[in-house]
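Dear Dr. L.,

I hope this message finds you well. Following up on our conversation about the binding site, I have prepared a predicted three-dimensional model of the protein together with D-xylitol-5-phosphate. For your records, I am including the exact sequence and ligand specification that went into the calculation, followed by the structure tokens. Please feel free to forward this to your student if that is useful.
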Amino acid sequence: LTRPLIAPSILSADFARMGEEVIAATEAGADWLHLDVMDGHFVPNMTFGPGMVAAIRKHTAIPLDVHLMIDPTDPFIEAFAKAGADHIHVHVEGNPHVHRSLQTIRALGKKAGIAICPATPTDMLQYVMDLVDIILVMTVNPGFGGQKFLESQVPKIRMLREMADMTGRDIRIGVDGGIDAHTAPVAMAAGADMLVAGTAVYGQKDYAAAIAGLRHAPGS
Ligand code: DX5
Ligand code: ZN
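The resulting structure of the complex is given below.
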């Protein structure tokens, strides 16, 4: 298996020391930095908006992987692109025009990601695959860090890997939620090649050891 990309989620970082936390993850070997945007409406929690993304942008050169858990999504896509997001993930749920959202992200010159919640079937992605660069499989219900990895999503990762490969294009499959040294190899064996990790990086003392541990987890 190829080594996965590791994207620490700043949701589990110390928000009062965000600049230092971003630099620490970068120096510890993070491939991407995952930024969870929550509005208290699409998910039962709130985090931050484009202002935080712009502030973080000044402290790292690695790709900013912005996960939008907001409703509506479209009116904010441009602001996140301008703030310095490299990848923008929109959820397939609750957005009747997700095709347009993906087109908008692409038109802004950013990588388009689609996130899919645990209860949502893979069919929902069937007719937008040509617009997708990254698929983010939620292995917890979105809203909070530190939840347990949902094993029920493993067949879904496998199915989406097949769908992605069938396009003949290089589509990344990321997993988001409950990733640790035990679940990382499970997700990777099913076809994931990008791992989001909040608690498993920012909840640890040694970020470099945590990132290396996920990348080289036994069985992977
Ligand atoms: C949950 C977020 C995740 C979260 C993962 O809504 O999308 O990115 O930070 O946290 P852990 O890795 O602790 O499950
Ligand atoms: Zn996320």
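In brief: The chain is about 30% helix and 20% strand.

With kind regards,
A. P.
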